Amino acid sequence: MKKPVSIIGMGLSPKDLTEEHLGIIRHADILVGGKRLLDFFTDSPAHKKEITRDIKGIIEYIKNRMPNNKIVVLASGDPLFFGIGSLLITSLGRENVLIYPNISSVAAAFSRIKIPWHDAHIISLHGRNKVRALIPILAKKDKVAVFTDPENSPAWLANYLLEKEITDYDMCVLEQLGTASERVDWYLPSEAAGIRFSEPNLVILKLRELRSEKITKIYSGMPEYLFDHQEGLITKAEIRSVTLSKLRLMPDHIMWDLGAGSGSISIEASIFIRPGRIFAIEKNPDRIIHIENNRKRFNVKNLEIIQSELPDSLDNLPAPDRIFIGGGGKDLEKIIRSCSGYLKQDGVIVINTILISNIEVAMSTLKSQGFITDIVQIQISRGQEMPLGKRLDAENPVWIITGEKRRP
C-alpha cells in the first residue's frame, strides 16, 4: 500500500512552519525539494533528494519510493499557488497526496506594501512565455503581481513596458522576501530598466491613481470630437456601432484594423476584445500620431499600432479572427486578396466604403476568395438647429460589406 506524500508549503522561510509541519518533516524518511529549501534541514537524518530541471525523473523517483517511505516534498510559498503541488496531484493522484498550505509570496508581498490584493491579478512569467497576456491584463486591472525569473527579470519587464509605451504604472520590486537580504522598493519603469535585481524577486505593478483619473471611458458610438482625427476622416459614430455589430467580436479575438485612420474602430473594438489583441495598420504618419493619442486617452493597452503601406507587414502579425477595412481606395482588391489568406476559418471581414465603384470590387473579390457575403447601406441624417426648430442634414451613405470565411 502506498503511503501518501506530504507536500508542505514553506512560506517565505522555516519561520513560517507550524509545529505540525515541523513534526511531519522530523519523521520523514525522504525530503524532496530545491537546494535552498533542503539546506534548511541539514541536521535531518532523512535522505535528501534535490529537485532539478528533470521533473519527470523526480516524479518517477517519488513513485518508486512511496510504498516503503514517508516522503515529504518541500515547496516554496504555498504548494498550490504556482507551485509543485498541482503537478504532484496530477502525477500521483489526489488520494496519494496530503497538502499543507502556507503563506504565498504574493500574500507576503502585498502585506509588505500594505495594499489589499483581493482585486489584484497574478501572472507568472517564470519559465513561461506569457508576456503577451500581460498587456490585456493591464487594460483591466490596476494591480498586477508578476512572478519573474532570471530571463524575464524586473529590468526586462520595465523595458518591455517602456517599449509598449505603458508608463502609468509604478513598479514595486520585492527581492529575497523572508531573508536577511530582503529589499522592497518602488520604481518608475524608466528607473527599473537599468537595475540588476537580486534573485528571487517579485514585481507588483500599480496604476498611478492621479493618472488613472484622466482616462476617458469608452462606449460604443462615441462622438467624433472625443477622438484626435483629421477633419472628415473618421468613421461616424452611428456607422461605427453598426460596423462593430457586423464584426461580431469576442473577448479572445485578434483583430486587424487596416487603414485605421484615427483608430476609432480599434478603440471601440477594445470594449469587446479582452484579453485578445488589436492591430491598427496605417501608412500616414500624421494619422499614426492620432491613433497613438487616442490609445493613450482611452487607456487601450491591447492595441498595437503599425505604420505601414498595405498589404506590407501583414506577414509578421498573428492570424486574425476579424479584419476591418475602412475603405482601401484603388488598392481595395489587392488588400482583400492579400489579407483574406491570413484570416482564420470562420473569420469575418467587414469593409466600409462610400465609393460606388468599390461595392462591386469588394463583393466580387470576397466571393472569388470563397466568402459568403452580405451588404447593407446606411445613411444617417443628423439634426441641425434652425430658428424655428430642427432640420435633418444627410451624411454621405456608407455601404457595409461583410464576408464570412466558412469551413469547406
Describe the structure.
Strand 11 (254-258), helix 11 (264-269) and strand 12 (277-282) form a beta-alpha-beta unit. This protein has helices spanning 19-26, 35-38, 55-65, 85-92, 105-113, 131-140, 154-163, 189-192, 209-212, 237-247, 264-269, 285-298, 332-340, 356-368; strands spanning 5-9, 30-33, 47-50, 71-75, 97-100, 121-124, 143-147, 169-175, 183-187, 201-207, 254-258, 277-282, 303-307, 322-325, 348-353, 372-378, 381-386, 389-394, 398-404. The chain has 408 residues and is α/β, with parallel strands linked by helices. It is built from 14 helices and 19 strands. The model has no long low-confidence stretch (mean pLDDT 90). The protein starts with a strand and ends with a strand. The chain folds into three domains: 5-103, Cobalt-precorrin-4 Transmethylase, domain 1, CATH 3.40.1010.10; 106-212, Tetrapyrrole methylase, C-terminal domain (Methyltransferase, Cobalt-precorrin-4 Transmethylase, Domain 2); 224-404, Vaccinia Virus protein VP39 (Rossmann fold), CATH 3.40.50.
